[in-house]
């Protein structure tokens, strides 16, 4: 009798917590439009196990991540292919000197002919801090859609831990984001910016939160008026056992393999932080920040997706912000896997528009600190 009751309770749990064989396609919570959009790429089912481990030779890890970058870029290009350009915008590129003498490109977009200061967004792209580029089609689209709502949006081409813009492990990418923030803050008047929000998704969500923590430590927090982190990739605990992950952040098991998987993320962690020396450093993995690290930060918004492995770390960070006394909001996008509300402009335009509108709402409601 006890066994039957326990089994019934277990199968009632969501996702793979209740049924280890469940996939993004078979999970009843999944938005079917996003599932069908991923199906041509074989991403509606569980991905093949990662061929490497976090302790594999670094050269092999770098090659694996570089190959993954090619696949992700092709996926995002296909998802954005055929969309008409966002009208009514003007663009230019600024090239500044990065903290290590590197060239740091900033892609600036704004409504054409706009007069008067507009809300500004410093956008940090996703890719686990190790792959992808701000110049990629998905991130160009996101920035343009944000700019079209009446904002000045600046994309940062920071150094990655691997791939075409690597290999530059932590803290190189964060250093670049801090340098970009300082430059944009200094040139607010030239750029026509009123308030400035640091925003990003996934790995860019990590860098968004870390940039704010670093600004506090560096005494430059006055440069940031708000922080908006989407589906933030911030715990770094993806290589732990399933039992440990389920106990600390259940979504890492519940939704594991729904578009992204913990074994692959664990390799990316090792590439970003070789040897794990910064495993609990909030600048590397903001999930590990204590309330004292966050006290005094500007208003935050945390956006998570229901069937994303990373959901619970975003929610946990929101709780820490609230405990620290930071003005912080949170939203959950129903039925969405990791990044779905920013990937499927064609398949699920309402999801896309909702997130773009919420970023604009948050940024437009800020006041200069």
- What proportion strand? 15-25%
What's the Cα radius of gyration? 20 Å
Q: Which ranges are low-confidence, i.e. pLDDT below 50, for 5 or more consecutive residues?
A: 1-9
Mean pLDDT: 95
Strand segment tally: 8
Morphology call: globular
Describe the sheet with the most strands.
Answer: 8 strands, mixed
C-alpha termini separation: 61 Å
Structural class: alpha/beta
Order of helices and strands: HHHHEEEHEHHEHEHHHHEHEHH
Question: In percent, how helical is the residue content?
Answer: 40-55%
Q: Biggest sheet, strands in spatial order?
A: 1-2-4-3-5-6-7-8
- Put simply, the count of helices is 15
Secondary-structure map:
Blueprint: H1 2-11, H2 15-18, H3 32-38, H4 58-80, E1 89-97, E2 103-111, E3 118-124, H5 137-148, E4 152-156, H6 172-186, H7 188-191, E5 193-201, H8 203-218, E6 226-230, H9 242-248, H10 251-254, H11 262-272, H12 291-294, E7 300-305, H13 311-323, E8 328-333, H14 340-343, H15 349-364
Parallel strand pairs: 3-4, 3-5, 5-6, 6-7, 7-8
Antiparallel strand pairs: 1-2, 2-4
Describe the structure.
The protein has 369 residues and is α/β, with parallel strands linked by helices. Helices cover 41% and strands 15% of the residues. It contains 15 helices and 8 strands. An 8-stranded mixed sheet has the order 1-2-4-3-5-6-7-8, sandwiched between helices. Residues 1-9 have low confidence and may be disordered.
């Amino acid at each position: 009798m006890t066994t039957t009751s326990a089994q019934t309770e277990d199968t009632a749990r969501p996702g793979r917590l209740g049924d280890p064989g469940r996939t993004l396609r078979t999970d009843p919570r999944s938005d079917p439009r996003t599932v069908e959009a991923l199906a041509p790429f074989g991403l509606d089912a569980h991905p093949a196990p990662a061929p490497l481990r976090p302790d594999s030779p670094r050269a092999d890890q770098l090659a694996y991540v570089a190959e993954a970058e090619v696949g992700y870029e092709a996926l995002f290009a296909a998802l954005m292919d055929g969309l008409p350009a966002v009208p009514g915008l003007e663009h230019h590129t600024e090239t500044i000197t990065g903290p290590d003498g590197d060239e740091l490109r900033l892609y600036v977009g704004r409504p054409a002919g706009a007069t008067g200061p507009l809300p500004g967004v410093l956008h940090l792209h996703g890719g686990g801090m190790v792959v992808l580029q701000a110049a990629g089609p998905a991130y160009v689209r996101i920035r343009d859609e944000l700019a079209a709502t009446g904002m000045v949006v600046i994309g940062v081409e920071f150094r990655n831990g691997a791939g075409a813009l690597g290999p530059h492990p932590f803290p190189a990418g964060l250093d670049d984001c801090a340098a970009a923030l300082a430059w944009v803050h200094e040139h607010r008047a030239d750029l026509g910016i009123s308030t400035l929000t640091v925003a990003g998704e996934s790995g860019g969500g990590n860098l968004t939160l870390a940039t704010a923590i670093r600004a506090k430590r560096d005494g430059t927090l006055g440069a940031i008026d708000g922080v908006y982190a989407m589906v933030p990739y911030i715990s770094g605990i993806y290589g732990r056992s399933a039992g440990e992950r389920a106990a600390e952040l259940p979504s890492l098991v519940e939704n594991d393999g729904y578009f992204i998987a913990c074994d692959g993320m664990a390799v990316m962690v090792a590439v970003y932080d070789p040897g794990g020396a910064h495993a609990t450093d909030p600048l590397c993995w903001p999930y590990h920040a204590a309330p004292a690290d966050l006290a005094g930060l500007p208003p935050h918004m945390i956006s998570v997706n229901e069937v994303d492995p990373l959901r619970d770390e975003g929610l946990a960070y929101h709780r820490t912000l609230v405990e620290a006394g930071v003005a912080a909001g949170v939203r959950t996008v129903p039925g969405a896997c990791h990044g779905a509300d920013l990937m499927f402009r064609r398949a699920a335009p309402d999801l896309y528009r909702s997130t773009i509108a919420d970023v604009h709402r948050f940024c437009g409601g800020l006041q200069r600190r």
